[in-house]
Amino acid sequence: MRSAIINSGYEYPAKKITINLAPADLPKEGGRYDLPIAIALLAASEQLTANKLDEYELVGELALTGALRGVPGAISSATEAIKSGRKIIVAKDNEDEVGLINGEGCLIADHLQAVCAFLEGKHALEHPKPTNAVSRALQHDLSDVVGQEQGKRGLEITAAGGHNLLLIGPPGTGKTMLASRINGLLPDLSNEEALESAAILSLVNAESVQKQWRHRPFRSPHHSASLTAMVGGGAIPGPGEISLAHNGVLFLDELPEFERRTLDALREPIESGQIHLSRTRAKITYPARFQLVAAMNPSPTGHYQGNHNRCTPEQTLRYLNRLSGPFLDRFDLSLEIPLPPPGILSKTVVPGENSTTVKQRVMAARERQFKRQNKLNAWLDNPEIRQFCKLESEDAQWLEETLIHLGLSIRAWQRLLKVARTIADIDQSDIITRQHLQEAVSYRAIDRLLIHLQKLLT
């Protein structure tokens, strides 16, 4: 601080200095307070006549030369300042980031001298140039997937209703390939969603904010990821993978290989759409409204039946027991992705529907949902399920008997209704029919697998 002030042509006050950062109970760290502290010192020592100081917020780190450096989270600071009717000055290093806001209340500077001259009315600061999103061509198209029509249908339903999806199958059947295509079926982020996602991403990687602008996040952490990496943490809690996936997709490949406590920690955020992090020095809530897509093998060797099976039912059940029942309940759909039938790879296969065609149906179904209830089906609460997912008495009785047969919970009942509602929306139907319910029940592969293994043991 002393060097920055002196190298900017000012004198450092030769007296005892007390700086109060209020409120005292909130932790402060990093260099983001360098600029406001330096300006406060110059104003208090009467070296700076800053009549406009009350109108501005200041964020920036100071180099020894007085040059301004960028700080993490500048887009969050700028957004909140503009919302509160104030203006903000940030470092030029953060120009690309804050330029996404297109707000007139944001100014950029590259040196402490420039900020001082502006506050004294001797110099004008520039507004950040509007930053456009980096366009990205669709790299993964649904038509690349050979066969697996049920998997494609499940992916369409998942995208249309905002549901959680579990893909089960032997190695090499296209589970990961299918999951990587879901972003091509989802709409671009709205302006509000884009700002939320950019604000979170800027806390960990500001350079990627422009590249990811308006693109749905797709996070795929390795199965060795720790609990802190997944949900967030640290002395001053930072966002984890579930928050970085906010408004997007969290893909967990090789699901049973994740630590059980890491997976169980996702249960509450999946329901509430946010994560509460409590530490000794701080308590922070981050948004975490994401779609969970996961892929797994049905057994340690990848197969649970046929010539490739090398596991007993006990070993397979022990493997599946790595996933708790309450966690599996969070999946709206679970699909089996089988090995392709013999000869399909050697035949000339007509490409299936591309992502653009399927996305049109997804967008139409989402439009029906927002028009009816102003939210996606996956986020309906209990009263809304009763209001928007009504069944005929015969259909309700059939569904209850089916759930009893499969041994499913009340939560599974609710999720089946929401999936059936999405299928009806894709079909442009105002009511949920028995056919929609039957299709929704068909997407319970994990339950059928567990029942099959239990029968083998009896």
TrEMBL record:
SMART domains: AAA. InterPro entries: AAA+_ATPase, CHLI-like, Mg_chelat-rel, Mg_chelat-rel_C, Mg_chelatse_chII-like_cat_dom, P-loop_NTPase, Ribosomal_Su5_D2-typ_SF, Ribsml_uS5_D2-typ_fold_subgr. Pfam families: ChlI (PF13541), Mg_chelatase (PF01078), Mg_chelatase_C (PF13335). It comes from the Bacteria. Residues 161-341 form the AAA+ ATPase domain. One of its GO terms (molecular function) is ATP binding. PANTHER family: COMPETENCE PROTEIN COMM, MAGNESIUM-CHELATASE SUBUNIT CHLI. Belongs to the Mg-chelatase subunits D/I family. ComM subfamily. This is Uncharacterized protein YifB. It comes from Escherichia coli.
